[in-house]
Amino acid sequence: MITLWFCSLILSLTSVVFGMTAKHWLHEYIQWTTMSTSPADAVLFRQLRYEAFVEWGTPTIIDYISFLLQVAIALFFVGLVILLFTLNPITAGVCTILVAITLAVARRATSREV
Questions:
Q1: From its phi and psi, is residue 57 left (phi > 0), alpha (psi between -120 and 50) or beta?
Q2: What is this structure's pTM?
Q3: Cβ-Cβ contacts under 8 Å for 96 (sequence gap 6 or more)
Q4: For the residues of 44-100, what is the DSSP string, one character each?
Q5: Per-residue pLDDT tens over the stretch 50-76
Q6: What is the reported pLDDT for 32?
Q7: What is the C-alpha separation between 14 and 93, in angstroms, rounded?
Q8: 114 burial type by CB count under 10 A (0-12 exposed, 13-18 middle, 19+ buried)
């Protein structure tokens, strides 16, 4: 139970680090529109940043942020249900149903292609 909560915490914090890094990269990427250089230099800088953006796999990292958070939430919920079973089986049963519904809805909502 505690192990699941710590794994959840680690994955949550990892997704925060990825999110902050991606935000920094995106901020640098869109910076090209505010440069006071010539349009040709601005486009050159934009292309260089775009190539670095793709080379570092930024779109993939952004996709992983959502996945990491979903796994962290699932681990937290499982740890919570395990704890509840040791305290009160009836409450644990009700919470298990709610957790299962929540995870199923979250999975279905995030698995659709837009």
A1: left
A2: 0.68
A3: 81
A4: HHHHHHHHHHHHTTHHHHHHHHHHHHHHHHHHHHHHHHHHHHHH-HHHHHHHHHHHH
A5: 888 888 888 888 888 888 888 898 999
A6: 60
A7: 31
A8: exposed
